[in-house]
Amino acid sequence: MRASQYLISTLKEAPSDAEVTSQKLMLRAGMIRKVAAGIYSYMPIGLRSIRKVEAIIREEMNRAGAMELTMPMVQPAELWDETGRWDKMGPEMLRFKDRHERDFALQPTSEEVVTDIARQELKSYRQLPKNFYQIQTKFRDERRPRFGVMRGREFTMKDAYSFDRNEEAAGRSYDAMYAAYTRIFDRLGLEYRAVAADTGAIGGDRSHEFQVIADTGEDAIVYCPDSDYAANIELAEAVSLLASRAPASQALEKTPTPGKATCEDVAALLGVPLETTVKSLVLATDDVDEAGHPNGSTVWLLLVRGDHALNEVKVGKLDPFKAGFRFATEAEIVEHFGCKPGYLGPIGLKQPVKVIADRTVANMADFICGANAEDFHLTGANWGRDLPEPDLVADIRDVVEGNPSPDGKGVLAIQRGIEVGHVFYLGTKYSAAMNATFLDEDGRPKHFEMGCYGIGVTRILGAAIEQNNDERGILWPTAIAPFEVVICPVGWSKSDEVRERATALYESLRATGIDVILDDRNERPGVMFADWELIGVPHRVVIGDRGLKEGVAEYQARTDAEAVKVPVDQLEPLIR
Ligand code: ATP
Ligand code: MG
Ligand code: MG
Ligand code: MG
């Protein structure tokens, strides 16, 4: 590639609405251009990195035995009706009507379409297992698109779906994807952690997120530095750490006056400092059996915020014999409280929180005096309104850190992460809803056991930059850099020798398959260097008259402090 024929459009300053480093640098490097909130053009330089990410993912998915296909962006409501998700998805799913007044949506994910494919194409157990994947545009009308490609509305996802005969086989498919993800994120050159994630209504322990470690991450991870234990704080297990601070007796003693719960009461009850911001913390039910197990049908969730009043909400029906129960959706809670969306905190209310401490839970029902009365809730609370965005990690660091790790191998620490991948065992949730069956060996129809596996292709770029940057720009891991090497000739238009040697080097690197760009724009060295450091090309070779007299070029890796002189014919090993 010759820079003169390419589009290099760097900016000195990022647009003022850019919030985080990766977003600023991607805009300044000319990798993306904003078209609307959360909607970007991927410019030629940006697309190069995206294609490299995709290539690694594709290779590893194929290696793991998955098959690529593409499912439509535009999907009919009928399929989504079959699983009930047309109604459940809420405003994140962008819907519209065609000219015949038929309902459609832009795909936020593709379980329905792929399950429909499976029920038509896979008839016999002999055809199983199967794993289909696509690398496709997704649209999610995110409540708060931000941070550039990290939380876009239109973005690229790799989504895969496995179909198996039984749960055991589905477990093998899950493990194969977990292993493939490990290889993918290793190859991408990112520092990441696989963390246990919420399994929602499905239950079990087969849901893991791959989190890139970064201070700007929106997720909070609790982990044990001495063992493999790592979990998203959303997970009940992690949340329960907080509540375990409130023994039942304490809860009894501290039961506040009906209807007049103050923040002090709540803080005391939970055993956390008053200034701690705690959100969506305690689960309560109005009925517990003799053994202390929740028996009743109504589950309540207390929402607490440091210096603000308390609120509570009825979150769903509890089935004591099942691990999962339905929780209110964020939309329902927003409606119930009239609170600002986005303040519900990373302990998502969409996530089921298991009953935390049975006795406490029982007592909490008294505590929320009137919890049994339909539609009662404490008044005067303005939780969530006009407050700065909560900083969950900072808020609960002191509550989490130092607690024993659930695996007993050390103590817990907390850090931030960016969710770049998610593997999830689905069971028969979709196949049962859509009656997708195959004939098993015994001649009977069975529902497919499914798993789904997502990777945020475009988000990976943002996450990689959050992890790898300096004051001059991006420091790409070589595997996903838009170019591996840049050749900067000094005196392009003035010196025939510089031009010839630079071009010869360019041709020879290209011939060996190195992704090289020749900066033939005839710019001053300072301009060239600033551009390529901003864009983050890992290797730079400078060719000028002075060096050529000695037969050398200047070589500098993007991460090196200084350039070194290298004989021109010995450059290649440095770059490989
Ligand atoms: P998040 O918790 O960040 O909203 P999610 O759990 O809703 O993500 P999944 O449904 O698990 O996302 O989708 C699979 C992957 O797609 C995620 O792990 C993430 O990397 C990526 N992804 C999800 N939403 C976005 C988005 N708005 N912009 C860019 N990438 C996204
Ligand atoms: Mg999401
Ligand atoms: Mg998530
Ligand atoms: Mg996820």
Describe the fold and architecture.
By secondary structure, the protein is α+β, with helices and mostly antiparallel strands. It is 30% helix and 23% strand. It contains 18 helices and 26 strands. The strands form 7 sheets. Strands 3, 7, 8, 9, 10, 11, 12, 16 and 19 form a 9-stranded mixed sheet that branches. The longest helix has 22 residues. The protein is elongated. The protein starts with 20 loop residues before the first helix and ends with a helix. About 25% of the residues have low confidence. Adenosine-5'-triphosphate binds next to strand 8, strand 16, strand 19 and helix 14. Its EC number is 6.1.1.15. Keywords: Aminoacyl-tRNA synthetase, ATP-binding, Cytoplasm, Ligase, Nucleotide-binding, Protein biosynthesis.
Write a concise keyword list for the protein shown above.
576 residues; alpha+beta; nine-stranded mixed β-sheet; 30% helix; elongated; binds adenosine-5'-triphosphate; binds magnesium ion; protein biosynthesis; cytoplasm; ATP-binding; aminoacyl-tRNA deacylase activity; ATP binding
